[in-house]
């Protein structure tokens, strides 16, 4: 569990570092320009850490299922080496899926306005500025997200269907309550990750008449809410983390 929490923290830190580079530059120093290569790099890392977070949430859902359905074999199924392999696979999967998307953007020509609507480089936003055909880039980008975040969401849902089925077969009401309580933090993390992402997708595809600030607000919420809320969710629900936080706060007071 702590290995998975460390992975989740790493992806949240990655997002937290990737976004403010341009966001704080705009707000603090009024720096409103970014080179094309820097824009592509930021876009790649934002997408990479988003895909990685989705993959980590899927791995955590599998971990919850194993812990509830087969608790005695949890340590033998999810060994240190298996978790290390999962971590490496998550990074490789994201890199392989997203590299073609960024490579195709390099081939586009930009001859219209070069003004982005967000405080960071967002794939659909950059494609709108191109004056060449973007159907292939659009299809590759959409396929990359469906085959990663979309598939992960379906598998997470399937994991929870199996978890609910397993929990309902438990005779003791106290054991049922205990089993469900172990999933609350993860369900919260999944909701915080998925809901802003779905909202952003709907706004970009069906909310073209919405004011520009609505797009900007949802786009910022989509990437910032997860790194902000995940530490709070797991600090509240995980006793060891809660104790460590309280200990640090007490040591500062003294």
From TrEMBL:
InterPro entries: GPCR_Rhodpsn_7TM, Olfact_rcpt, OR51/52/56-like. It is found in: Membrane. It is a multi-pass membrane protein. It holds the Pfam family 7tm_4. The chain crosses the membrane at residues 13-31, 43-63, 139-164, 184-203. GO terms for biological process: cellular response to lipid. Residues 1-234 form the G-protein coupled receptors family 1 profile domain. Its main location: membrane. This is Olfactory receptor 51F2-like. It comes from Neomonachus schauinslandi. The lineage of its organism: Eukaryota, Metazoa, Chordata, Craniata, Vertebrata.
């Amino acid at each position: 569990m702590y290995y998975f929490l460390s992975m989740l923290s790493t992806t949240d830190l990655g997002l937290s570092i990737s976004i403010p580079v341009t966001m704080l530059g705009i707000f603090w120093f009024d720096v409103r320009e970014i080179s094309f290569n820097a824009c592509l790099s930021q876009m790649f890392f934002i997408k990479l850490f988003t895909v990685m977070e989705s993959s980590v949430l899927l791995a955590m859902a599998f971990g919850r299922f194993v812990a509830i359905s087969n608790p005695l074999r949890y340590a033998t199924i999810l060994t240190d080496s298996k978790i290390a392999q999962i971590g490496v696979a998550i990074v490789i999967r994201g890199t392989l899926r997203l590299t073609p998307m960024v490579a195709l953007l390099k081939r586009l020509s930009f001859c219209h306005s070069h003004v982005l609507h967000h405080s960071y480089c967002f794939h659909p936003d950059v494609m709108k500025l191109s004056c060449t055909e973007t159907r292939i880039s659009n299809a590759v980008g959409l396929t990359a997200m469906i085959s990663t975040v979309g598939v992960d969401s379906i598998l997470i849902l399937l994991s929870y269907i199996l978890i609910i089925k397993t929990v309902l077969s438990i005779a003791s009401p106290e054991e049922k309550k205990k089993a469900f309580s172990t999933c609350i933090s993860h369900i919260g993390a999944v909701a915080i990750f998925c809901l802003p992402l779905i909202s952003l997708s709907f706004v970009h595809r069906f909310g073209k008449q919405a004011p520009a600030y609505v797009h900007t607000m949802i786009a910022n919420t989509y990437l910032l809410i997860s790194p902000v809320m995940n530490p709070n969710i797991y600090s509240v629900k995980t006793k060891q983390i809660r104790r460590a936080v309280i200990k640090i706060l007490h040591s500062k007071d003294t």
